[in-house]
Design a protein that fits this description.
mainly beta; 0% helix
Amino acid sequence: MDAVTGTLEVGKSADFILVDRDVFSVPVAEIHLTQVRETWFAGERMN
């Protein structure tokens, strides 16, 4: 499994989302306003 996971690089599988803000720097009361811009599953963009 390590051959296809663990890092972001060409030839490896990746599941992640891209959001519209840095959730670590916004006030806690605003985190719920975060929107997903892209969803990636198994290295493929879903939206």
